[in-house]
C-alpha cells in the first residue's frame, strides 16, 4: 500500500506511534527507506547537513497542511514553522531571532524564576494538604500547566493562570486534541479540506484558536513596557501589505505557545520519569545540586551556574536523545523547478520528499553505543574507544536555518525547572503505577502528546549532606563503576608536568574536535597523536588512509571544515571617510598574522601594522599601494557545505612519538588522575547558528579592578564603546539580529586583595562608590546597561565555582607569583576582630597587605596584581571570553578575533614567554582544565612568564595557547627592540611614558591620526550635558589635586602657577569657560585618544566606523 498511497500513514498517525514504526523500519531495512510513493526516510548523519542544513533543501509538502486557524470564520495563516519558501522564511526568522536574542532572554529569566517558584509552591501545597505528607499529583499535568503559563509570559506578557485554576477550562487538553488534525492531514495534504470538515477533528483546534485570538486581542488592548514575543513580532515582522498583520502575529504567537509549552513540558516530564526508573541518577543529581547550592533556608538556585553542571546537562541531553520533542517528521524536498538534488551518491528527484526522524537516528547504534535504547547519561561525558556519542547525529532541536529558534530559552527552562524540582523534592512512583504505561501513553502528533505521571512527592530536608562520596559515574547506568585507565607515558625530566601523556593527547583531541585549532601549525615535538585528528576549524583535506600511514609520526591535523573565502575589506567610493565594519562571522587567520608579525624573526612592526590595516580595510592604503594585495588578506568567512570525512586508521596504543618513560621525579609519582573532560564542543559556523551569538563562545571582555575607579579603566571602556559593534547607533528599541554584541564586565574588588570574601554590604558599597565617582558614574547610564556590567569580585565564590579548584584551593596560598609566596598573617579568619585592631595601627600606604589599588609606583598593589594573574584564568575558564588588563585601549572592532575560536595570549615580542595582559580562553575547555589543575598543583602559581609558559611548553600545549605579538595589542612598546628603531612605526614611541607625555616630534603625528593622567589639562570626564554631574565632580577632584604642589609637579608642560590657575577654576556650566591657552600646544597621544572617544559620547562626532551614537 505504501508504494501507491500515504493513507497507511494516516492510520499510523491516528494511532500516534509513528516514531516506533520508523524505528522498526530502519532497524530492518537500513539507513535509507522508502516510506511512500514519493518519500524517503533517512537516518544517515553525513546527509543531515545536505538535507536540513544551510545548503540543504526547503521544507516539504506536509507543511501545506499545517496551517493555524485563529478561530471560527477566520482564514488560516502561515507561521514561521510552516513557511516553505526559504526567502520568506528568512524574513520571518529575523523577527524571531530578535525575540530570542541573549538580552531578551535575560529579561525572561525573571518570569522563569517567578513561574518556577509558583510550580514549587503548587507541589508544596499538595504535600502540606496531604495527611500522609506525600503530594499525590500528576506531575506531568503540573509541568504542563507551568510551561503553558510561562509561555504566556513569553508570548503575551502575562501568564494564563493555569497553575492557579488547575486549568479548569481544559486549555491543555484542547491543545493536545488540536494536534490530531494536522498530524493526519500532513500525510495527505490533498485531503486537508476533507479532513477539516470533520467536526470531531476540527472543533478542538478552533476552540484553541478562539482562545489564542482572545489572548492576542487582550494583549493588543494592554499597554505594557515588557518586550514579549508579541511585541517583537508586531513591530519587527517583515510582511507584505496584502497579508493581514493581526492573524500573522497571532499564528506566530500561538506557534510559540505550542512549540514552547509542549516541547519543554514533554522533556521535563520525561526527565522525571527516567530518574524514577533509575533512581540512582536522581540521588546523584541531588548531590550535584547540593554541592553547587549548599542547602539552607535561604538557598537559591542561580540560573547562570546551571550550565556548568555536568550531570544535569548529561541527563537533559540523554532525555532529548531518547525522547526528542519532534520525533519523526523533519521533512524537506528539492525546490520546485530544480530538477532534483544529489545527496552524496543518492539522487532525490524533484517531487520526492525526504524525512529525517530524530527518534530513529538517536537510537542508531552507529551513532550512540553501547545500549542506544537505554538511558545512560554517562555517554555524554565519558570518553573511551568503546563509547560512541556522535553529536552530528544529535538533532533534538532540528538543524540548519529552520532549526528551533527558541533553543537557548528551552535549555534555560530545562535546566532551571529540572534543578528546582530535584533540589526541593523527593519523587517516587505511586504504589500500583505501572512505569511501562508512560511509554504507552506517548503519542506522536508531530510534537509528542503525553499522558499522566503520578509520582508521590516529598519535601527534601534542608540540612542534607553534600558529601560527594556517591557522585560516581557507572558504566551502564546501573551497577558497575566505569574506569578509563590506560598506560601512562611521560616526557623526560619534566619540570611542571602533572598530567600523563595519554591525557595530554586527549586535550589535543578535545580542542581540535571542538574547532579550537583553526591552524595548520604542526604539533610540537613529543605531542603528536597516534592518528590524524579531523579538524573542523580548517578546510577539508584529503585524508591519508594507506596502511602504513599510521606508523609515521602525525605532524598536523586533517581539515574537515568548510572552505575559506578571504574577503576584500575596503570602503567603496564615495564613502571612504570611514572603514567598513567587519563582516559578521568573519575570522582573522592568525597563521597569516604570525607570518607577517613574528618579530622574533626580525620582522618590522611598521610592516606588520600596514598589513593589519590594509587587510582589514582600516585605511586607504589600497589607493596608494598598487598591485594585487591578496597576499595581505587575512580575514575570511567560511562557506560551502559541511562534509564528514572517513575515520582515519587507528593503531594500537603506544608511547606517543616514541618517547620512553623515564625514571620518575617526585612530582611525576603523583600525577593527576585520568582526566575528566566534557564532550567536545560542536563546531558551528556563523551561518549555522540560530542567532548571531554562539552560546559556546560568549563574547565577554573582562577586566579586574581594585581601589577607586580612575581614568585608566574609564579610557578603556570609552574605547570599547567607540570601536566595538554594539548597536549604539540604533534606537534602543532596535536590535540587529545579524550581529553579536560583546559585553564588557568590570570585576570590582572593594577591599584589600587578601580578603577572600567581600564584607557585608560590599555590593551596595561598590555601587555607591561607582555612582559617586566621576570616572565610573557615566557607565551606569541606562543606555549602556546591556553591554557594560559591573560585578562584585568574590574570591571564594569564584574559586568554588571552578570544578578543578573548588575542593582544594583553600589548602593553598593565593599569593604565589613565580614561586615567591606572600604569606598572609595567620588566623585572619578566626581572629578577625583582633587582627583588624592590629591593622588600624599600621594602615599606611606602604602596608603591602592592605593596599586597595595602585596610585603610584611607590604604592604598587602587588597583592592585587598577583590575584589578578589568577583571576584572569578563573574568569575566562568559568565564563569564557577575553581578559584585558585595565589599561588596554581598543583601536578597532574585534569581530574577527572573536571568530578565531582558539585560545591566545599576548606576548612581548622580544621575549618568548607569555604576557597575559590579553588572554582568551574558551569556557570550560580542556586547555583551561589543564592550566587550572597544573597551577593548583604548583601552589596556584599563575605567573604568566615563569609559570604559564612552563606549564604549556612542558606539556607540548603551547600551540593551543597562541602567543600573539605586541603589534596587535600594545603599541607603546613597539619600539623597545633595537632593530625596530631603524624603521620605526608611526608614532615613534620609544618609551612607555611617551604615550602620556609625547615628544613634540611625535605629537604632531598623533593629531593627524602606569599612572599618568590621560589628559592633564582636562583631567575629568568630558562627556557633555548628560553627564554634567560627573564632570562637576571630576573638576572638583582636579582642583583638589592641583592644590598639592606634588601633583602640580606632574604637569610639566606648563608652569606650576599656570597649572594651578587652569585647574583651580571651579567651572560650573554657564559661569566661565576655559581658554585654549590653558591647553597644551602639542597634545599627547593619550589626550588625543581620550578626547576622541569623549566626542563620540557627546555626539560631536561619529565613532571610527562613521556611526553616530543614538541617545
From TrEMBL:
<comment type="similarity">
    <text>Belongs to the cytochrome P450 family.</text>
</comment>
<feature type="binding site" description="axial binding residue">
    <location>
        <position position="404"/>
    </location>
    <ligand>
        <name>heme</name>
    </ligand>
</feature>
<dbReference type="GO" id="GO:0005506">
    <property type="term" value="F:iron ion binding"/>
</dbReference>
<protein>
    <recommendedName>
        <fullName>Cytochrome P450</fullName>
    </recommendedName>
</protein>
<dbReference type="InterPro" id="IPR002401">
    <property type="entry name" value="Cyt_P450_E_grp-I"/>
</dbReference>
<keyword id="KW-0408">Iron</keyword>
<dbReference type="InterPro" id="IPR050121">
    <property type="entry name" value="Cytochrome_P450_monoxygenase"/>
</dbReference>
<dbReference type="GO" id="GO:0004497">
    <property type="term" value="F:monooxygenase activity"/>
</dbReference>
<dbReference type="Pfam" id="PF00067">
    <property type="entry name" value="p450"/>
</dbReference>
<dbReference type="InterPro" id="IPR001128">
    <property type="entry name" value="Cyt_P450"/>
</dbReference>
<keyword id="KW-0349">Heme</keyword>
<keyword id="KW-0503">Monooxygenase</keyword>
<keyword id="KW-0479">Metal-binding</keyword>
<dbReference type="InterPro" id="IPR007577">
    <property type="entry name" value="GlycoTrfase_DXD_sugar-bd_CS"/>
</dbReference>
<dbReference type="InterPro" id="IPR029044">
    <property type="entry name" value="Nucleotide-diphossugar_trans"/>
</dbReference>
<dbReference type="Pfam" id="PF04488">
    <property type="entry name" value="Gly_transf_sug"/>
</dbReference>
<dbReference type="GO" id="GO:0016705">
    <property type="term" value="F:oxidoreductase activity, acting on paired donors, with incorporation or reduction of molecular oxygen"/>
</dbReference>
<feature type="region of interest" description="Disordered">
    <location>
        <begin position="645"/>
        <end position="674"/>
    </location>
</feature>
<dbReference type="InterPro" id="IPR036396">
    <property type="entry name" value="Cyt_P450_sf"/>
</dbReference>
<dbReference type="GO" id="GO:0020037">
    <property type="term" value="F:heme binding"/>
</dbReference>
<comment type="pathway">
    <text>Secondary metabolite biosynthesis.</text>
</comment>
<keyword id="KW-0560">Oxidoreductase</keyword>
<comment type="similarity">
    <text>Belongs to the glycosyltransferase 32 family.</text>
</comment>
<feature type="compositionally biased region" description="Low complexity">
    <location>
        <begin position="653"/>
        <end position="674"/>
    </location>
</feature>
